[in-house]
Amino acid sequence: MQNNKKTLWKVIGASSLGTLIEWYDFFIFGSLSVVLATKFFPADNPTAAFLSTLATFAAGFVVRPFGALFFGRLGDMIGRKYTFMVTLMLMGGATFLIGCTPSYESIGFFAPLIVLVLRLLQGLALGGEYGGAATYVAEYSPKGERGYWTSWIQTTATFGLFISLVVILLTRFLLTEQQFDDWGWRVPFVLSIFMVYVSYLIRKNMDESPEFKQAKAEGKTATNPLKESFGNKYNLKFVLLALFGAAMGQGVVWYTGQFYSMSFMKTVMFLESDQADLILGIALLLGTPFFVICGKLSDKVGRKWVMLTGMLLALLTYRPIYESMYQITNLSTKTETAAVIAASHTTIETSDGMNEIHTTTQSFTDGTSVKNTEITHLDKNKTPILKDGKPYITAKSVVHISGGNYAKLVFLIFIQILYITLVYGPIAAFLVELFPVQIRYTSMSLPYHIGNGIFGGLLPAVSTYLASNALSKGQADYYLSGLWYPIIISAVCFIIGAIYITKSMSVTKKDQ
């Protein structure tokens, strides 16, 4: 038994490391979306550039179901191990090349086109990776403990995001702001190739899962996994239930807590980028152990109500949580200690002329400070550049918080991470247990990646659009409008899951 546990930990370690790296590769694009918007898209319309970057980010999610179909079929026919070795190399190569792609200023339209293609390759790779890793670990796990053991794989997505934030923060710390803006943002992308190589060396020595080897030895592997998975009405019923009763709700809760929250802090609260990343990182670190706790809990009480509880809490409390977040940096409710405590004026040369930069800093009695920057764009003759008949001036404000406000924001993000652990901790075991071994990789991967890739992956772009549209209409609480998307999806999923998921599906079917 001790030897079996030792083998299982090796399996989890090798699977988790590779999956963690793939999530790291996938998330640095989202984490750096604000910066990438200025590198791969025209700079004359920052809002459009940011939305285009989010759309490119979402494209990687949209294509994930196709990766699930392609690699799921391979995984059910030739084996789990070799399939997610291929996905690892594909993901690492695409990420490395994003870091090498010239900017829009250098090659124009080809820059966003190349990045889009590479982003699609990332999505295809991730579509095949997760199902393989989750299936592989589940097929090694002892009976009655799949929730616990597969929950370790669930931590890799959060750790991947956490590590991406750490690498970005360290890169920013070691470089000047100008160096990071010029070339330093490429470092997190390029570093991934070294991590992928280490994971490859570990994974290549792994054995195939015992359940798949037994099925192969008995001649019970699928000859046409796609037809057997989706052409069979009985199995298709479980695929649809997995999607609409669990995966789509899990997807929107996951991306609200980890991506919409980050975007909200930076683009609505105007929080300093490094501070927002650090706050999210702290909340992730505090919340990650609960993936394992919730996975183990699902072994005891069943997967269904652990997951549905997370969805219910999310749809009931998202608006109050984000209202509280917004008020932390709402300057209209704060008292200034001084009108201006610091001011500076500098001029820097650009390719088109020069920029006059005027900066002021305000402070408030609760420890909040705001850095206001106004840039006047001049041509080579030092004459203001005109836009729409007026001098071209750009302005931005960056907020820095401290003390109780800092702790409060960490707590509000942490609560959202707890919701994620409830829905995400048990879902790998839940999906694995729904399907027989010969079509498991294919059958579980598709609903998972539609739920996460389509419903979850579109969340940043859809929610940002809803909030922007509400702002254009003058709605006072425009900043909460983007939450209607995850709230409605979670509500629909909760109702379907509560009615149609039975105990036999989520607990006793694990020994099939």
Automatic annotation (TrEMBL):
Gene3D superfamilies: MFS general substrate transporter like domains. Its main location: membrane. GO terms for cellular component: plasma membrane. It is found in: Cell membrane. Pfam families: Sugar_tr. Keywords: Cell membrane, Membrane, Transmembrane, Transmembrane helix, Transport. GO terms for molecular function: transmembrane transporter activity. It is a multi-pass membrane protein. It comes from the Bacteria. This is Predicted arabinose efflux permease, MFS family. It comes from Sphingobacterium psychroaquaticum.
